[in-house]
Amino acid sequence: SDIGSQRERVVTEEEWIQKWEMGNIGFHKEQRHPLLQKYLDVLLNGRTGLRIFFPLCGKAVEMKWLADMGHSVVGVEVSEQAVKDFFSEHSLPYCEEPVSEISGAKVFQSTSGNISLYCCSIYDLSSLIVGKFDGVWDRGALVAVNPCDRQRYASLMINLVEKNSSYLLVTVSYDPNKHKGPPFYVPESEVKSLFG
């Protein structure tokens, strides 16, 4: 698969943190994603009280929406600014604690207990720390991951999900020679080779 000049492109975690601090977050959407609304029944599959994972969650509004439906939401985000903005913009009280297994990491948990956002590198997580998930909403994670890290990312995600889980993935399609990314172009063939 030809991803053009993007193959070698790397965006550091510091650059992502800086985007949040500078308010350069055009990737954040204020409204629920129409594809999640359209395919919500696929994600939930008639089940209630699910554990749903939001990789590279930012301050996604869908986290509160799903938590309000009675699901348990866990996200991971490298930017503490994004995590704190999520709780303040939804007027949700929370507590903040260090994650003993990950140096420098924190978890921000709503006082209601149904939203837990880890502030750390996604690659520091494991199922031993966060458990396993019934569903994943990947709206902007795979397309934000550096192309050289996709296999590592996919392996982690596969390890974080239960056998009967649902994984909703949104990608973008464009000519990768005309845009350096992110979002990065991930062809369907690569999605299949990563996730089977």
UniProtKB/TrEMBL annotation:
Gene name of this polypeptide: Tpmt
Pfam families listed in its UniProt record: TPMT
Keyword field: Cytoplasm, Methyltransferase, S-adenosyl-L-methionine, Transferase
Enzyme class label: transferase
Major subcellular location class: cytoplasm
A biological process term (GO) from this entry: methylation
Name of the featured protein: thiopurine S-methyltransferase
GO molecular function terms listed in the Swiss-Prot or TrEMBL record: thiopurine S-methyltransferase activity
Catalytic activity field: S-adenosyl-L-methionine + a thiopurine = S-adenosyl-L-homocysteine + a thiopurine S-methylether
Transmembrane segments: none
GO CC terms of this entry: cytoplasm
